[in-house]
Amino acid sequence: MGILSILLCVPLVGVLVLQFFPKRKFSAHRVIANLTTFVTLILTIYLYFPFQTGQEMQFVEKVSWFTFGSFEPISYSIGLDGLSLPLLMLTTLVSFIGSIASIYIKERTKQYYSLFLLLEVGTIGVFLATNLVLFFFFFELTLITMFFLIGIWGYSKKERAAYQFLIYNGLGSAFLLIGIVGIYVYFGSVDYDSLMKVIPISSFNPFTWTLLTLLLVAFAIKLPIFPFHRWMLLVHVQAPPSVVMIHAGILLKMGAYGMLRFGVSLFPDYMEYISTLLAVFGLINLLYGAILAFAQQELKSVLAYSSISHMGIILLGIAAANQVGLQGAVLQSISHGLLSALFFFLVGALYERTKSTQLENLGGLAKSMPIYSGILMVASLGLLGLPGLSGFVSEFFSLLGLFERHPIYASVGTLGLILAAVYTLRALLSVSFGEQKKSISHQDIAWKEWLPMFFLVVTIVGIGVYPDLISSTLNHTLETIVSDWRG
Amino acid sequence: MKQMAMDLSPEWILLVGIALILIGEILLRENSSRFILGLIAGLTVTASGLFVILQGKEVISLFSDSYVSDPLIRSIKLLLIVGTLLVVILSFSEKLAAKGEYYLLLLSALLGAMTLVSAAELVMLFVSLELLSLSAYVLVGMHQERLASSEAAWKYVVYGGASSAFLLYGMSFFYGLTGTTSLTEMSGNLAVAFTNNNEMLLYLGFFLILVGIGFKIAAVPFHMWAPDIYQGAPTTITTFLAVVSKIAGFAFMLRFLGSLFGTQGIQSVLHGVVIPALLVLSILSMIVGNVIALKQFHLKRMLAYSSIGHAGYMIIAIITILLGGESVAYSSLYYYFVAYLLASTGTFAILQVVAQDKSPDRRVLSGLHKRSPLLAFCLSVFLLSLAGIPFTAGFIGKLTILVGAFGNSLFWVAGIMLLTTVISYYYYFRLIRQMYWQEDEKAEKERVSWSAGFVIALTLIGTFLFGIMPQILLQGIGSWFM
């Protein structure tokens, strides 16, 4: 059993161990979950060092899994490359912080943490899988566990949120499955590396277009892209904050990862061909999200629309169809993952104290909760793309790439950055500053809360100051992808 | 003679078992336990299964080709046997089984199903089908004191009788056209009959038979009986109908259509009439079954509609077999059978435990996760398998069907299959929601009898095993039966 399989099994072991504890031992459940996610984090950090830049898939494990008649066997194959490594690290980091942030969950903790760890298996597996069928297995695992996590522990409209999540993403999965089966039957394989050789380049045919469209729609629902975004708003607002950390931090990035992995690297020339279309959708997301975020009266909704806006930037980076743009897209995935994890940790902590996230009920927290407000400030600055924080580099790279291909769209895109500053600062001002609405002063966050938050802040600053941390591993993989585009 | 006895051994054993149960019923006192009869039934079915396995890859043909048995047929027989065995075990804790004729009828129904699978001649087909159906009519009405049960039996007799009439009428056309009742001879003669301007008669016969088959497998628009009968029948018998009787119906369909219109048949009829008719049947079943299931409050009715939807998926597998395009076709149908058998039997077993004698609506599941977390978990797994979620056998079943459909360029059907699957998420997950989100004042743990527990454990293991390591079964089908 290789190290990647061990990584996949660690959370499973955690789930098993959890089953031996009685229902009421809340603190034991927390300790086990935190430990498990911590071990996965350590394992991925440990993977970072022996990882060799300039090579294809590494730590590869491949075992024959099953065969359909005369088709090529489907194997259990996992591996890491420059594209999946940063996202994997994001996953384990956010999962760890997310499991710490789950202190606000106070009932049915055994079930909660079991599902949480299963969700982690799913998210890790999605980034490790190197064949489409295995990818789909893990993709669906996240769907099922999220359904429970939203539905049982969410806020008042949790059922609607859970069902919308299920039906939208179920449809997405259906599209994805059709696409996968189509690829399997017509190109005879589901392995990434053999598909990259098999799928013909620059011979556009309607069938391949259909397959690509199916895949793109599936990931567009996950990302989400403008007309498919409704479910995601509900989930952001109704799911418990610790679950939204995973949702906004990792699950949305699966959409971006899917587009890069299956769109750009399997069908490079097709993606280049539709880059204008992608750019248009990206702009719509960017501006629509930003404008609506400005109009929201509730903190979680502001963040939800800001997520839509930021996913637009990822799309713009992909639309750029060059190395800088793709680099921006991946960096934006990481950066937004970290920022939204931080934000929803903050939201959880806030809700715990104020029992409200309506902007009109908040205000003046800087006085009573200085540490909290300080971290919120850093997070907001990251979200609006202040240089020196991770948000800036990613947006800069995405737009830089886009300028090369579609200068006009890119200039419109910069508008989105200004809007981001407007809505973020508006939200920040009404939470931290101004008049305190209630006479009760809230207790500031404890070390258990600010320490993990601080950890995230350090990472955000780290990437902002030294983006090569990620780019160095990423670039080589992107180079091989981009080499299909005009040399 | 000795050879014939060996060749027919699985059926002989069932007959012996039936006789033993009859004698036992006479010898036993009226109020003494019938457990021993159940044990005899279980052992008989097991022995019959062993003999099916022992026959291996032999190809048997008896009574001038009216009874055939080859590995493919044997694989289906094995499924029927396993399904019946699970039903027999479930029945140990069923009060109805206090009557001796319960097991007797169960075995005779199985005997009918087994000969139905082996039959290669119209009369034999019909006789077997009637043996299966008549036994099933009585079994459905076993709850004599319960109105719903009697009503269900009555409806089943009426619907079933009508469909048998259609079937028989259709068969008479085929006999008239070809002058033979043997399916092997018929496929040759049919081509001659077809060229003699008798197409209309052929089509008429085909559609009449399709009505009969459609009824047996509960495909839309011949599905009306299923919800009422599933609801009224005792849960163990519902399981038998949903699993064994349905699989036998599909085997009949495959045998009849395969030998007359399969790859050696008349291609213009196959592509012009048979496949389109089946496509319509399949699409209607998928849509109607899954959409109406959304509105069902009664659990057994919901499962009835869901099984109608599953029939739609299985018809796609049948179509791919008839088109003969892909080598995966047969194993995809078989895989789906297995997945469906495991998940359905498990679901019904849990329903039997949870609902006891009450007629189960969705509320009986409320708060199950608190009362019996293990049961709630098992039921969730079965429902996920029925919904076709990865890591369960149901997903691999769906995947194989999809691969077959794509291989034969049946894109639209594959698309509809996946869309209706998404619709089905809604009602399967609603039950899961009921178990995990809805609280209930009832606090006592569910009492699980050992027999139900055994069946649930077995089906759970199977669902996971075939979902995570599909190779075991896929290879099994490949090497053992072909």
UniProtKB/TrEMBL annotation, chain A:
It is an enzyme of class 1 (oxidoreductase). Its EC number is 1.6.5.-. The keyword Transmembrane applies. One of its GO terms (molecular function) is NADH dehydrogenase (ubiquinone) activity. Residues 129-412 form the NADH:quinone oxidoreductase/Mrp antiporter transmembrane domain. It is a multi-pass membrane protein. Belongs to the complex I subunit 4 family. The chain crosses the membrane at residues 6-22, 31-49, 83-105, 112-129, 135-153, 165-187, 207-226, 233-253, 273-295, 302-321, 333-351, 371-393, 408-429, 450-467. The lineage of its organism: Bacteria, Bacillati, Bacillota, Bacilli, Bacillales. It comes from Shimazuella alba. One of its GO terms (biological process) is electron transport coupled proton transport. GO terms for cellular component: plasma membrane. Keywords: Membrane, Oxidoreductase, Transmembrane, Transmembrane helix. This is NADH-quinone oxidoreductase subunit M. Pfam families: Proton_antipo_M.
Automatic annotation (TrEMBL), chain B:
It comes from Shimazuella alba. It catalyses: a quinone + NADH + 5 H(+)(in) = a quinol + NAD(+) + 4 H(+)(out). It is an enzyme of class 7 (translocase). GO terms for biological process: ATP synthesis coupled electron transport. Keywords: Cell membrane, Membrane, NAD, Quinone, Translocase, Transmembrane, Transmembrane helix, Transport. InterPro entries: NADH-Q_OxRdtase_suN/2, ND/Mrp_TM. Its EC number is 7.1.1.-. This is NADH-quinone oxidoreductase subunit N. It holds the Pfam family Proton_antipo_M. NDH-1 is composed of 14 different subunits. Subunits NuoA, H, J, K, L, M, N constitute the membrane sector of the complex. NDH-1 shuttles electrons from NADH, via FMN and iron-sulfur (Fe-S) centers, to quinones in the respiratory chain. The immediate electron acceptor for the enzyme in this species is believed to be a menaquinone. Couples the redox reaction to proton translocation (for every two electrons transferred, four hydrogen ions are translocated across the cytoplasmic membrane), and thus conserves the redox energy in a proton gradient. It is found in: Cell membrane; Membrane. GO terms for cellular component: plasma membrane. The keyword Transmembrane helix applies. Residues 119-424 form the NADH:quinone oxidoreductase/Mrp antiporter transmembrane domain. It is a multi-pass membrane protein.
